[in-house]
Amino acid sequence: MSNRIRGALAAAVLALSALAAGGCVTNEEGGRPPDWAPVRPAEVPEIAALLPEGIRESGELVIGTNPPFAPAEFKDSAGEIIGFDIDLAQAIADVVGVRLVVQEQDFSLILPSISGGTLDFGASGFTDNEERRATYDFVDYLEAGLQWARQPGSAVTPEDACGMKVAVQRGTVSDTDDVPAADASCARRGLPPVEKLSYPDSGTAATAVVLGRADALSADSPVTAWAVKRAEGKLEFAGDIHDGAMYGWPVPKGSELAPVLAAALQHLIDSGDYRRICEIWGLADGAVDAARINGEEIP
């Protein structure tokens, strides 16, 4: 199962800004989090020396991304593409000593562009799965899945939501699989059903919980984390990430770039810079403990 349900998520900005005076999580995007600061590590010559010759000669690392998918990638009010994926890719480019070039593309065109050589890798919330591994190698950089949120003080969880109202974004896995599974569990136990409230975007779904119209939110874990971070204490996590999968950077199968990206990521993990970027964007719960290629730790 892909944690990124592109059709629905791309239809909405998924940019949850700070709560307005009326207590709503809105779709008006204010930009980077208030505590944002650039994380720009120094070049590591021994890692930079491993870059494929073409990238070394160009001095550029070209990534493809497809906003909006906050907090991974989205546009601020000036039209600049920002987000967790962009900050992490910039740190990788710094470690290997080249300039980061961000190209916005339709999500469906990113993998073909990597195969065609016009992109070096994709940084756009790609789920690392067996089907994609047939053609691409993935450098795994974030654990994602599904996660619930609730108002502070509430006891609702994915395992105990019988008789509760759960808000979802229409068309996502939360809508089609997650909440229906919770409801089926209640039915098997002879308990009241879970009432699913479907909304056109995650901002509206999160607002429903803040305003008490719903008891919980079910969404992709990065989206839920973003909502909790932006809600100024009016939302909290309700249970751990479940149905997890890795987000990864796809490169062509057998590419020399994969081990370089993995080595740079491992350097950022060891230095603490990776963790800082995760924390800035509210994604610390999905932080990986080691760089992996196709799920396997690098030697």
TrEMBL record:
Signal peptide start-end: 1-20
Signal as UniProt keyword: yes
Coiled-coil intervals, chain numbering: none
UniProt keyword annotation of Secreted present: no
Domain Solute-binding protein family 3/N-terminal: 60-285
GO cellular component, one term: cell envelope
CDD domains named among the record's database cross-references: PBP2_MidA_like
Pfam families in the record: SBP_bac_3 (PF00497)
Main location: other
Keywords: Signal
Subcellular location: Cell envelope
UniProt record similarity statement: Belongs to the bacterial solute-binding protein 3 family.
Protein name: ABC transporter substrate-binding protein
Source organism (scientific name): Corynebacterium sphenisci DSM 44792
